Amino acid sequence: MIGDFDAPRWGSGTLSRMTMDVLTPKIVDITAEGLSLSGDLTGEELGLTDADVSIRGTLAVGLELRAIERTIYVTGVVEGTAVRQCVRCLKDFDDPLAFSLRVAYEREVKATSAVAKRDDPRKRKPAAPPEGEAEEQNDDLYYFTGDHLELAPMLREQLILASPMHPLCSEECRGLCTRCGKDLNEGPCRCGEEPTGSPFQVLRTMKEKLKDPGER
Ligand SMILES: [Zn+2]
Ligand SMILES: [Zn+2]
Fold first, then answer.
1. Are both 75 and 115 inside the same structural domain?
2. Ligand 2 (single-atom ion) residues, CB below 5 Å
3. Which ligand is nearest to the CA of 189?
4. Which of 6, 152, 193, 200 holds its CA 20 to 30 A away from the CA of 64?
């Protein structure tokens, strides 16, 4: 171990150096006893774009890494606030976010080596089980090369997976009027008071069409 005294110190750069350490732990530091990592990370540091998930402020990330034989198991919790758009009223709202994750990392085997062709872990154990086989509690599988893990792409993917398909600002959200576009959470619009076509007239037209099916 090299003494702390000659570790580079870059003033304001210290924070980003720490963030880098949280997201890129060295393999040699991950033992069977485990390695705990925690930090407050921005969406940018995780490679998130607004098209993925928009994060308000930072995310509190706490991870526990444990090496068992050749596999590194990562468990942890991610907490923060996402800014999502309600699918009904189209307004942005703050959505509290908290989820736990459980993934595994294995060393990437070079596809060119003869061993890899015979025993490619990607063929043996799919990272995501196919639809309908969800009962098999496989950890999501990621790969590493070199001397450290890259946690950012994994965290980004887990954040996207944890996001709701149809975000709602509230279960009771009334959405927008399909006719005039008014946000009905702010009160009723006048569309209901001024019907544009009598429903009886519509029915009459339909009946007439049924009477003369040959007419085109
Ligand atoms: Zn809404
Ligand atoms: Zn309306």
1. yes
2. 177, 179-180, 189, 191
3. 2
4. 6
